[in-house]
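Students often ask what a holo structure prediction actually looks like on paper. The answer is less mysterious than it sounds. You provide the chain, you provide the ligand, and the output is a string of discrete structure tokens encoding the 3D arrangement of the protein together with uridine-diphosphate-N-acetylglucosamine.
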Amino acid sequence: MGQRSDRQLDHCTRSIASADNQMAQKILLTGGAGYIGSHTYVALIEAGFEVVILDNFSNSNPSVLIRLGQITRQNQVICYEGSVLDKALLAQIFTEHDISAVIHFAALKAVGESVEQPLAYFSTNITGLLCLFETIKTAGIKHLVFSSSATVYGEPEEVPISETAPLQFTNPYGFTKVASEQILTQAAAADPWAFGVLRYFNPAGAHPSGLIGEDPFDIPNNLMPYIAKVASGALPHLNVFGNDYDTRDGTGERDYIHVCDLAQGHVLSLQKLLSTHEGHVVNLGTGQAYSVLEMNAAYGEAVGRDLPYVIAPRRPGDVPTCLADVRKAKKVLGFETQFGLADMCQSSWNWIETQAPS
Ligand code: UD1
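The corresponding structure tokens follow.
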């Protein structure tokens, strides 16, 4: 398992060792304690990988590590506490572990905050990627899965949005995702790297165990965690940002994807990279859009009562409809979603009601 680091956190739960682990490839998950990272951790362990996490807990809670151990029945969840900007720590991880590939989640992701603090976004999201690159190049790693976002499509001209749509950005956060994708493309042209670029649509829901889920530190920006806080009574009502869009009911339509399906997409991407050494850029969505009012009603059904909302002005920068063309993900990765809207709402509510740290 390598030498213990001062900053390595061990969390003992149950001691169940799998014989398969001796053969398992080891994956570094930067940001592995976060919302999507933690669900991907579980999916990777279930697929037979070993995992090392690097996380600075800037938007996650260290108790996630204990919960990951419980879900995966591991006696040890290996996590280094620190930043992707810390090159010495990155080098230490690669010295202490025989890493086969990296999944890079660690990044800042709040659009409004990125407008107020663009330099923080450039530093964490772009310099962080470059620091990681420097280390993986030295370590001889060839495969990396990158967390991108449908935000790279900006205001799309056509929906469903295919991967060939032009890339645009409307804020510093979006800029960092477009720039990172371009860095990956140009780096792969010069060195024998293969990257899986995954453009997430709107992640929602939680692990069915109720042990991990989305746990934003501040008032949520995104729709489902906001509705969850209304349902729990922490917020009085949902503000519906505009009901005069050219959509089915006038409110914004998005392609919500269950976080466990999204996690599975990472496993497929990684397996594709490791088995074929072929890079890919794919959308991860369901191909089905729901409006804000439909989401609020579906969450209300999971909770068992109507949830209050008021119509508010449009949010600057919002598009009417964002919907994935999912054909490429199916063709290239064999990716298909398993969960629907009711699963997303029920699992989210299960997480909020029973487990979310206050
Ligand atoms: C937002 C970001 C996007 C980012 C994505 C994932 C903006 C403009 N876009 O996308 O760059 O990649 O999150 O983190 O911030 N809504 C309400 N009330 C709320 C919250 C949201 O009505 O309190 C509506 C929005 O107007 C939108 C829908 O719900 O129509 C979904 O919003 P959200 O969850 O923030 O996701 P995106 O806007 O798709």
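Residues 109, 111, 149, 151, 174, 202, 221-223, 226, 238-241, 252, 254, 292, 315, 317-318, 322 surround uridine-diphosphate-N-acetylglucosamine (CB under 6 Å).
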